[in-house]
Amino acid sequence: MSVSVNPFPIHLLQSFPPTPLQRIRWEAADRAQIEVYLKREDRIHPQISGNKWRKLKYNLVAANNQGQQTLLTFGGAYSNHIYALAAAGSTYGFRTIGLIRGEEVLPLNSTLTFARSCGMQLHYLNREAYRRKDNAIFLQDLKEQFGSFYLIPEGGSNALAVKGVAELVAELHTQLRWDYLCCAVGTGGTLAGLVQGAGGKGQIIGFSSLKGGDFLHQEVRKLSEAYAGLTNQGPQQFNNWHIQTNYHFGGYAKVTPELLQFIRRFEQENQVLIEQVYTGKMLYGIENLLRKDFFKPGTCIVAVHTGGLQGRLAGL
Ligand SMILES: *Cc1c(COP(=O)(O)O)cnc(C)c1O
Fold first, then answer.
1. CB 109 within 8 A of CB 77
2. N or C: at which end does the chain have fewer Cβ atoms within 10 angstroms?
């Protein structure tokens, strides 16, 4: 029997008001007679931002229920997930271990400096070791090295993450009627959560932030299946979603002058900060599709601002 010694403030996890919706000013949308709103998930928590908070929520509850005091995860040196998990650990009373892809670079960048200031223990894995991050034997070795921990996969995406993101859609239903729901895609956890939350209604569109993002369709299906296992409902696969794979601007975290110019214009016209890895590419993609008359006139689009502003290029 394990008794948790964490003073886990579970009520804090449940006391977040709905994130606001912001109407987007867009000529391309006006011309197409379409309303576009930004769901401001970036405002959900100052450090545990956007979709990372949604994805962590039920994982924190599960870790606490299992009596685990340590959270271990993986990520790149600029990862929003590492940043959010470190903040969640210090907020909710968990020890955190971050296994970072690549070699240590000193001085630490701002993401890792913040993570360490939250108490996260940082370790580095070369690319070969990092590739084994989901391997059972490798994880067993980690238990021998670090002791017992609650594992949260790269990007925070697992069945419980899907459950957390699905709540976003339930919340949105109380706010307005929508036809299209858009999000950026990294690992696919957020998109899977929106798809499951929507339960077959509307159209859900992901925008891949990676080059060659077609494999992400499979990732979303796998995560949806894992979520079905959790709910004992049997697999619920829906067909009202797809991933746009042509708005990656050269690949993950790559930018072009055109993308940066778009972001500056969007930020000025809407008085909101976005960033260049995820939301900038998604919003560029939506504007481009509006110009191509992709969306049905008279409809309403909600684009999810998944946060991640800690990774916004300085001087963008
Ligand atoms: C992590 C992240 C994403 C991608 O979410 P996935 O669930 O991994 O697809 C999108 N936007 C922002 C700002 C992120 O930090």
1. yes
2. N
